[in-house]
Write a structure and sequence with these properties.
This protein is of the alpha/beta class. It has 2 domains: 5-226 and 301-337, Luciferase-like domain (TIM Barrel, Alpha-Beta Barrel); 228-297. The chain is 41% helix and 14% strand. The protein contains 13 helices and 10 strands. An 8-stranded parallel beta barrel has the order 1-2-3-5-6-7-8-10, surrounded by 7 helices. Helix 1 links the parallel strand 1 (5-11) and strand 2. Helix 8 (255-262) packs antiparallel against helix 9. It starts with a strand and ends with a helix. The mean pLDDT is 95.
């Protein structure tokens, strides 16, 4: 059993830019954390804050969790990746995800169809750019290079990056929830970013990750909330679940709700969505089962977290990405886990 690493998950900005992310990253680095991660939804992007944090740290690996593939062409993502990898001395991890149809079609104005095929094609092009062995070509239907589609001038030619990448093997992680998507992640990526993972229900993903490579990483986002009152400690997790299960997806297709159902809480997931879409958000949050919220997080007293941390150490997860938001939480987790 390999040692469990810790990462710092900073997520995406809310209504205003955060003021303490550099401070948190620097403290995480001092404490021996392995990585720091930034995200994007439909506001702040994931690369710019990571570059700023990278300029103020020296050892932390820098990951996107996740960069939405519909936000940029594969070559644009590869350009940002190789640039940031150079600027930070080879610390970049590219975490990619397909997001969902509401965001992809509503915010990016792109079709969501065939997410697995699009991801496979996307990753192949990014790897071609980073390898820089020859001009980049792709015959796939989603990202054809050169482009010869509608309204093309048909003057495009295959190109190779002007800038030589620092590393051809920048790690690529994928955010994946569905069984087929997770299986593909183990095939084509270097690591997996699950949304929800319970060390108490290993059977949920057992078949999909059975054939992963020996050095394959699993970096799990984990809310940590230290509070002797367990009911109060779980509330932030339940608020998050209420929003994601109820509102981050359409009525007929919500990947987060479908995952909760596969993890054994189908009736509860359906009820949460119904309540949320009836604008009964407080009731939706109240309906989130304590058991589910508890299994995918680390909440409660320090002694309770220490005890439950053992299940994570015995799981396939290689890194816990701590979402705690304050220095004290980072320090406590370092004492317990490192």
């Amino acid at each position: 059993m390999a040692d469990l690493k810790l990462g710092l998950q900073l997520g995406y900005w809310q209504a205003q830019p955060p003021t303490n992310h550099v401070e948190l990253a620097q403290e995480a680095e001092r404490l021996g954390y392995d990585s720091v991660w930034t995200a994007e939804a439909w506001g702040s992007d994931c690369f710019t804050p990571l570059a700023w944090i990278g300029a103020h740290t020296s050892k932390l690996r820098l990951g996107t969790a996740v960069c939405q593939i519909s936000a940029r062409t594969p070559t644009a993502t590869a350009m940002a990746t190789l640039t940031l990898d150079h600027l930070t001395g080879g610390r970049m991890i590219l975490g990619l995800g397909v997001s969902g149809p509401q965001v992809v079609e509503g915010w990016y104005g792109q079709p969501f169809a065939k997410p697995l095929a699009r991801t496979r094609e996307y990753v192949d092009i990014v790897r071609q750019v980073l390898a820089r062995e020859k001009p980049v070509r792709s015959d796939g239907p989603h990202y054809p290079l050169p482009y010869h589609g509608e309204n093309a001038w048909n003057l495009g030619k295959p190109l190779r990056s002007i800038t030589h990448p620092l590393r051809a093997d920048v790690p690529i992680f994928l955010g994946a929830e569905g069984p087929k998507n997770v299986a593909m992640t183990c095939e084509i990526a270097d690591g997996w970013l699950p949304l929800y993972f319970s060390p108490f229900r290993p059977e949920v993903y057992e078949d999909q990750i059975a054939h992963r490579k020996e050095d394959f990483e699993i970096a799990q986002f984990t809310v940590v909330n230290i509070n002797d009152d367990l009911e109060q400690a779980l509330m932030p997790v339940k608020y998050m679940l209420g929003f994601y299960i109820g509102g981050m997806g359409a009525k007929k297709r919500n990947f987060h709700k479908e995952l909760m159902a596969r993890m054994g809480f189908e009736a509860e997931a359906n009820k949460i969505q119904d309540l949320f879409m009836e604008d009964k958000r407080a009731e939706a949050v109240a309906h989130v089962p304590d058991q589910f919220a508890d299994e995918i997080s680390l909440c409660g007293s320090v002694d309770r977290i220490r005890e439950r941390l053992q299940a994570w150490k015995e799981s396939p997860v290689t890194s816990l990405l701590v979402a705690g938001g304050d220095v004290d939480t980072l320090r406590t987790m370092a004492e317990l886990a490192l």
